[in-house]
Amino acid sequence: MGWVVIFGIFIVGLISAWYFGYAAFRTGLSVKRWTLMGLILGPLAFPLFTAHNLFALRKVRGYEECILNS
User: Fold this and answer.
1) Whole-angstrom Cα distance, residue 60 to residue 57?
2) What is the CA radius of gyration of the chain?
3) In percent, how much of the chain has pLDDT > 70?
4) What's the pTM?
5) 5, 21, 30, 69: least CB-packed within 10 angstroms?
6) Distance (Å, rounded) from C-alpha 20 to C-alpha 69?
7) pLDDT of 69 higher than 70
8) 33 part of a folded domain
9) Residue 38 three-state SS
């Protein structure tokens, strides 16, 4: 029973690593960093990824530019 839980955690980590690596590549962030972060933290890295993505976007666009979601 214990090995099933460990195997499940390992699979979730691998899926998260793939997802964050792909998302980092798609948004132009560091692929190695976010793949490793997804492998270590799993789905808990999602809020960190979205915040880092927004910070990078604001750095490129500038802080004064308004983004309207309509």
Assistant:
1) 5
2) 15
3) 90
4) 0.79
5) 69
6) 24
7) no
8) yes
9) helix
| Token duo for residue 55 | 């910070």
CB atoms within 10 A of CB 44: 11
What residues contact residue 61 under an 8 Å CB cut-off, 6+ apart? 67
Considering the domain boundaries, does residue 38 fall inside one?
Answer: yes
- pLDDT at residue 16 greater than cutoff 70: yes
Can you tell me which residue has the tokens 């666009």? 61
Q: Can you tell me whether residue 69 is helix, strand or coil?
A: coil
* pLDDT at residue 66 is higher than 70: no
Structure tokens at 21: 């690596």
Q: Quickly tell me which residue has 């910070």 as its tokens.
A: 55
Total tally of structural domains belonging to the chain:
1
The predicted-structure confidence for 36-58, as pLDDT tens digits, reads as follows 999 999 999 999 999 999 888 88
Alpha helices in the chain (DSSP H): 2-27, 31-41, 46-61
Give the pLDDT confidence score for residue 35 in this predicted structure: 95
